[in-house]
Amino acid sequence: MRGARFATAPSFVTVPFLLVRHELRLLVSLWLWAARRTEGAVAGGSVFGYARGQGAMMAGFAFVCVVESLTMSVLLRDWPAVHHVVLVLDVYTVVIVVGLHAASVVRPHVLDPAAGTLRIRRAVHVDVRIPLERIASVRRELRATHERTDGELDLAVGSQTSVTVELAGPVAHVSFFGRRREVRVVRCHADDPGALVRAVERARQGYAVP
Predict the structure, then answer these.
(1) Is there a contact between 165 and 189 (Cβ–Cβ < 8 Å)?
(2) d(C-alpha 25, C-alpha 3), whole Å
(3) How far apart are CA 96 and CA 77, in angstroms?
(4) Which pLDDT tens digit goes with each residue over 51-108?
(5) How far is residue 196's CA from residue 163's CA, in Å, rounded to a whole number?
(6) How far is CA 162 from CA 7, 26, 177, in A?
(7) Which of 108, 111, 109, 105 shows the shortest CA–CA distance to 43?
């Protein structure tokens, strides 16, 4: 057991690589957002956004970061070297915050009836592919509290989920640091949960998604 535990732990080489890849994906998301493009959309499929629920919160967070940057600029005006370093860090923080929101906008949930899959995503951190034949049920279910439970994956946006997908068989979820676990229940948020539920139900029945 101890050997298996250490085998799945991220190494000192893997962690920096994952962090750099994460930052690059956020920067790519900013470009896609500016270009009004969506990553992962397929012909004949449908996309379902989930970022609307966090828009105000992320805007507020970015505003606080900007105010902090201006405040630090005033406080450190007599120490130019320190001021430049802090300014770079503050600007980078604002870019990352905006990039996180952009990643949520350009990477929506994707339903692909032709491939028979439902991709549940959250920014650049989570991308779970669920075969349609493995879905036992899908329903609207608003939840504002979530407890970590084995076999369940909760992808809250704005501290809430609005869609619950129960599976007849497990699917794999790989965490940010590469840890793999199997889940049988996936809860996520969608701006229009009813549309997502109806589209998945029609796709499961073999009908085309409008």
Answers:
(1) no
(2) 32
(3) 25
(4) 987 887 888 888 888 888 888 888 888 888 888 888 888 888 888 989 999 999 999 9
(5) 8
(6) 36, 25, 26
(7) 111
